[in-house]
Amino acid sequence: xxxxxxxxxxxxxGPAGVxxxxxxxxxxVPVMVLEKHADFFRDFRGDTVHPSTLEIMYELxxxxxxxxxxxxxxxxxxxxxxxxxxxxxxxKHLATxxxxxxxxxxxxxxxxxxxxARRFPGxxxxxxxxxxxLIHEAGNIAGVEARTPxxxxxxxxxxVVGCDGRHSTTREEAGLEVQEFGVPIDVLxxxxxxxxxxxxxxxxxxxxxxxxxxxxxxxxxxxxLIIRKGSFEDxxxxxxxxxxxxxxRIAPYLGDRVNELHDWDQIKLLTVQINRLRCxxxxxxxxxxxxxxxxxxxxxxxxxxxxxxxxxxxxxxxxPLRERRVTEALLARVQQRREFPTRVTQMMQVNAHKAFVRVxxxxxxxxxxxxxxxxxxxxxxxxxMGHVVGVxxxxxxxxxxxxxxxxxPWSLRKxxxxxxxxxxxxxxxxxxxxx
Length: 435
Known about the structure:
By secondary structure, the chain is an alpha+beta fold. Helices cover 36% and strands 27% of the residues.
């Protein structure tokens, strides 16, 4: 078995792994990123690059080139609920350089970032290297075992970082305890063509006991039908005709295109999970991103939390890694930094899923609840939600990089103004509805 040596070995070439590799190599840390696939091209992955992530790209001096890649821009997030248009979050007033969500295939994001990372001499990305085990020595994790087309290899490292997703090998091999939170939904992903007259800023379509997500990819939609957990086999038994009818009923403007779905192979099941590790680390090992906390697709925030994890990890560990003095206490500081935003975000997602269950119970036309009318007439609330979705809880800055927009004196004063406007609008709307 061939053996290689590095300072930090990152298992997984997703957003967290590639971003962490970039940041560590930028600060002079030798790093090896292992990706089990031959390329990054896999559809039906997180394609929303939120303003918080775009701000990181600005701080790194990458934003201008990054936005030259094909993408679409969402300045707000809306939904058609029972035929009633609701704007749930508005990003136009964020204290960020980019006041929008960029819709971009994840493979473009990863290719862009890994190409820039290769300019650093310490960055080593190895494709078709699947981590299959950990190297244990005297109670520490000393590296990984990987499967490659040329055979098995060992990569020894001062630190292994598990970025290998919700089905993480590193966390399983380390025996880290996973806390599961019940999720009542799964998602069926598919592609369907898009026309220029289709709604642009509307992501959600909710009616007849169904929920349909449509992500604008230019000439096509990435569609996601939210279903009850475990019901995919029942849907398959009902047949493709029934599936197509469901899509056309929720979004009638797609009625002339649903016949593009002619095989179940075009429809991919995402088993939705919300979980997190009780402890994210062992001596010599740290898990971040989905390996530490699997997120629901609700809000599309998973990729952005993973990147925030990577930034916090690099900020806290780059210097100790260069000096070869990483301790478990330092690894615990990463969890302490990132666990609070993870818990808050997962709590919001769990509550959102409760609303999904209520939708499933109504198979007829969906009556518009009064709460949605409040949101529709509360721009202050939409701005607050824009901050929650677009920036998130406790956003990170790149240490030693150029200052981001939210380094300016903003947060408390402006947030208070938005919150006050939101409360005032809610009160006024409730009075109007009661009258």
